[in-house]
């Protein structure tokens, strides 16, 4: 059996081992590769930068622990940016199983010394989880307190100072949906845009953050202006961390991501070389002579 | 036999390692420490499937489903049913909101699926959900997914200042939309010029599949990296941020 034939018949567990070893080594010995910032990510950053102090940003974190590596760093980076800019944050989730994780993301962002003066209920609110997807979004478009009568800690929303002037979705200055599936970005575009467009003179802009698997399907929304920015997967999180100059998990894990991509590309090239070489020499890949 | 010996050795090594971690206080003997050990064990159990199917993987798989459903139900009760239905109806601040009786009754009807003779009653609830869903979703989906997208596709390829290199993307997009649409137009045989144009559509589709697959690889690798990060940083404490 030639080397090329052996390569084609390689045990897939060897590939798994190589990938795992590459990830471990790149985490132990990071190369700190530069993360190039793309326009869709920069657009979200610029929008938040342009908001005046005291503006309110709604972050709908629609994911659960199964997407944590990609989306959690996005949420933390976004919260940090808002707090750095002295913006108010209203966080929520449409995924019941994500409630604890989102509370953790908010706490992770608030852990910094610079944000020790931020008061819950005044500077930020976590509304908790609500099932219903589209119905929740439309409900918020008409009456936020009616949709979320109590926050995560079971306090009546109407008693929270930050929520006093937030009656409907049009009262927010920016809405970001960070989502791992449905309900998520699609629901915010389809059911939320109607309310976000009602704000005059200019609509409330909507932005999206999503897992890598979903990123390609949101580019049409970006192109048409239905969303004004897009964070795609761990790369999007790393780009945002780079923009706010606050490197964290997204950036540190990108080294491993880049290395594994190079290995996968190498395997694809090697596999194809082996396949076509064998096919050319033997007539077909199974080894039967012409 | 070799597989079960290997599994047993791994299980013993895992128990001994964690016992050492707890005794040496590398991991706190608290809710957090025990939680990390459980999460590490389940992560390893799930990834053990990459070697081959085994009881540890099966256990983790079934546990995940049970925990997810239980957690969903508990949070749903406290975050949705109590504040949106139970409180306003049975312990309201002012007057009870009796309109909530209708959705409550429809919800209860869903449980009729457990009684074969009364199963038909659940169809009323399903009909209400489908009717509401279709009525709400269809106009909005048409607006956002068809009209807004069409509006964007119909915009001029050249900007107000004339044609520039930036407009090349718009032209590529236009060719892509037309050729892919044509590829799915089956009333003309795809031969000659029509065949060549639909072939361009195929190329556009291939590029989009490639992009989607590339992103998928990135996403899957990110999940793997996230778990390895957890094992090395949170469990083994070998990585420091």
Produce the secondary structure layout.
The complex is a heterodimer of chains A (290) and B (241).
Chain A: H1 3-8, H2 12-28, H3 39-50, E1 56-62, H4 68-84, E2 88-93, H5 99-110, E3 124-129, H6 134-142, H7 144-147, E4 174-179, H8 185-196, E5 205-210, H9 212-224, E6 230-232, H10 233-243, H11 249-282
Parallel strand pairs in A: 1-2, 1-4, 2-3, 4-5, 5-6
Helix pairs in contact in A: 2-11, 4-5, 4-10, 6-8, 10-11
Chain B: H1 2-23, H2 31-47, H3 55-90, H4 101-109, H5 122-153, H6 168-183, H7 192-235
Folded structure, characterized:
- The complex is a heterodimer of chains A (290) and B (241).
- Chain A has two domains: 3-30 and 254-282; 39-247, MTH777-like (Rossmann fold, 3-Layer(aba) Sandwich).
- Chain A has eleven helices and six strands.
- Chain A has helices spanning 3-8, 12-28, 39-50, 68-84, 99-110, 134-142, 144-147, 185-196, 212-224, 233-243, 249-282, and strands at 56-62, 88-93, 124-129, 174-179, 205-210, 230-232.
- Chain A has a six-stranded parallel beta sheet with strand order 3-2-1-4-5-6, sandwiched between helices.
- Chain B is mainly α.
- Chain B has three domains: 1-91, no CATH class; 97-154, no CATH class; 159-235, no CATH class.
- Chain B has seven helices and no strands.
- Chain B has helices at residues 2-23, 31-47, 55-90, 101-109, 122-153, 168-183, 192-235.
- The radius of gyration of chain B is 29 Å and the shape is extended.
- Classes of the chains: A alpha/beta (290), B mainly alpha (241).
């Amino acid at each position: 059996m030639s080397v090329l034939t052996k390569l084609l018949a390689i045990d897939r567990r060897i590939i798994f081992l190589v990938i795992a070893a590459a990830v471990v080594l790149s985490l132990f010995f990071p190369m700190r590769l530069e993360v190039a910032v793309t326009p869709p990510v920069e657009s979200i950053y610029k929008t938040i930068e342009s908001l005046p102090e005291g503006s309110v940003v709604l972050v709908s974190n629609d994911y659960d622990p199964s997407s944590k590596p990609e989306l959690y760093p996005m949420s933390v980076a976004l919260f940090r940016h808002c707090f750095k800019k002295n913006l108010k944050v209203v966080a929520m989730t449409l995924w019941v199983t994500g409630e604890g994780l989102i509370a953790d993301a908010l706490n992770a962002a608030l852990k910094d010394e610079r944000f020790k003066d931020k008061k819950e209920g005044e500077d930020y609110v976590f509304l908790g989880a609500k099932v219903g997807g589209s119905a929740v979004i439309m409900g918020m478009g008409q009456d936020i307190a009616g949709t979320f009568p109590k926050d995560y800690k079971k306090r009546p929303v109407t008693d929270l100072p930050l929520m006093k002037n937030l009656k409907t979705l049009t009262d927010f200055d920016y809405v970001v949906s960070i989502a791992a599936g449905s309900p998520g970005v699609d629901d915010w575009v389809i059911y939320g845009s109607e309310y976000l467009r009602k704000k005059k003179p200019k609509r409330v802009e909507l932005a999206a953050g999503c897992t890598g698997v979903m990123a390609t399907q949101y580019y049409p929304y970006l192109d048409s202006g239905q969303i004004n920015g897009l964070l795609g997967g761990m790369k999007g999180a790393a780009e945002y961390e780079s923009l706010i100059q606050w490197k964290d998990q997204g950036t540190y894990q990108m080294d491993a991501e880049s290395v594994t991509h190079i290995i996968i590309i190498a395997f694809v090239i090697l596999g194809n070389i082996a396949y076509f070489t064998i096919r050319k020499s033997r007539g077909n890949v199974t080894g039967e002579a012409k | 036999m070799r597989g079960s010996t290997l599994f047993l050795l791994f299980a013993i090594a895992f128990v001994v390692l964690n016992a050492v971690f707890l005794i040496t206080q590398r991991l706190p003997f608290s809710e957090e420490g025990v939680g990390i050990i459980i999460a590490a064990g389940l992560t390893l159990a799930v990834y053990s499937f990459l070697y081959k199917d085994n009881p540890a993987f099966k256990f983790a798989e079934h546990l995940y489903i049970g925990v997810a459903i239980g957690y969903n139900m508990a949070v749903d009760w406290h975050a949705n049913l109590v504040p949106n239905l139970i409180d306003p109806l049975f312990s309201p601040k002012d007057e009870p909101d009796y309109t909530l009786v209708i959705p409550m009754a429809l919800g209860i009807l869903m449980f009729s699926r457990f009684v074969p003779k009364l199963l038909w009653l659940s169809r009323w609830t399903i009909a209400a959900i489908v009717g509401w869903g279709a009525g709400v979703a269809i106009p909005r989906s048409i607006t956002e997914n068809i009209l807004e997208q069409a509006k964007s596709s119909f915009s001029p390829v050249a900007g107000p200042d004339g044609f520039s290199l930036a407009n090349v993307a718009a032209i590529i997009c236009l060719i892509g939309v037309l050729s892919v649409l044509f590829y799915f137009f089956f009333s003309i045989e795809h031969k000659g010029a029509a065949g060549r144009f639909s072939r361009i559509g195929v190329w556009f589709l291939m590029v989009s599949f490639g992009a989607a697959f590339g992103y998928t690889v990135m996403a899957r690798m990110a999940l793997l990296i996230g778990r390895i990060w957890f094992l090395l940083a949170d469990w083994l404490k070998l990585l420091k941020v």
